[in-house]
Specification:
The chain is an alpha/beta fold. The chain has 14 helices and 9 strands. 43% of the residues lie in helices and 17% in strands.
Length: 307
């Protein structure tokens, strides 16, 4: 079981930066040296998820880790739902703000979907920066294979706003812990630490707004699934196969969709590989990038793509 984070959420929040985008006060972390690495977190948490592996990547990459709109410490002043398209627009603006013309991407959960939209734009040559590679962690890349939890279904429904206000903290945290592997579930201090991360600065009211991405995935399935199928750059999935939401069954779907991409299955690991198996994920990320460098030197980097 997991009972402590490498850095507290409070400390993490004090060493980041902000930039203004529309009516949003967007929080982001940055650090390290080397090639740019854009790290996009998932639902229902924040960029703090990456603190388990960022310490292992700091000497290899210049990392950019935003809190998505309405998540974590990114204030949503107008309190309106933010679409995946808007999340992608914000990231394009942040990349320009940081003067980063290209980046590798490491994404998880909702972050996978945002990365798919960025990838679709990249495939169409409309993206304002160049994507050099993409690594996906557990997420609903293929909507037909996504298995949302009961709480997610309620949040996405008509009773979502009411449910978000009345569901007990203990019940919500217990539900979150259930998507972890049996032997890697958060407990004690770490489980308590997750609560302010889930709430963020926008509070309980943000939860039903955030979950709308599930409907968007279905509406834009052709575009976002096609983005992976049509990509001509190095890709990899790292999948915790014990995840009931996007585990082994999602890995099987990815293998069929992108047969030339790398795929690593992590036994007994659930929905949050970067938290549950940080050493393994860090090692896989670094080895993947070593392979990219080697393949690029030989002129056949597309071997890792879906083509």
């Amino acid at each position: 079981m997991l009972d402590q984070a490498p850095i507290s959420f409070e400390k993490w929040s004090k060493c980041g930066k902000y930039f203004e985008w529309g009516n949003h006060h967007v929080f982001y972390q940055r650090g390290g040296s080397g090639e740019p690495l854009l790290m996009i977190h998932g639902f229902p948490t924040a960029s703090w998820d990456w603190c388990w592996i960022s310490k292992d990547l700091v000497n290899r990459f210049h990392m950019l880790l935003p809190d998505l709109l309405d998540y974590g410490l990114s204030l949503n002043a107008n309190k309106k739902p933010c679409s995946v398209m808007q999340q992608a627009d914000m990231i394009e603006a942040l990349m320009q703000h940081r003067n980063m013309p290209d980046a590798h991407i490491l994404a998880h959960d909702l972050g996978d979907t945002v990365a798919q939209e960025l990838l679709a734009r990249h495939n169409q040559s409309t993206l304002s920066f160049k994507i050099k590679s993409v690594i996906f962690l557990n997420g609903g890349l293929i909507p037909d294979l996504h298995r949302p939890r009961p709480a997610q279904k309620v949040l996405a429904g008509a009773l979502g706003p009411l449910f978000a206000q009345i569901v007990p903290k203990k019940k919500m945290l217990a539900g979150l812990a259930e998507v972890f592997g049996r032997n890697t579930r958060p407990e004690g201090e770490l489980l308590e630490e997750l609560w302010p991360v889930v709430l963020g600065v926008n509070g309980r009211a943000a939860m039903p707004r955030r979950i709308r991405y599930m409907q968007e995935r279905r509406a834009h399935a052709d575009r976002w699934v096609g983005a992976i199928r049509d990509a001509k750059l190095p890709m990899m999935m790292i999948n915790g196969i014990a995840d009931p939401v996007s585990g082994g069954h999602a890995a099987d779907g990815f293998a069929k969709l992108a047969p030339k991409a790398k795929l690593v299955r992590l036994p007994e690991i659930g929905h949050f590989p970067q938290i549950e198996a940080p050493a393994a994920v860090s090692e896989l990320v670094l080895k993947f990038h070593d392979c990219i460098v080697e393949k690029q030197a030989k002129g056949n980097a597309e071997e890792f793509s879906g083509q």
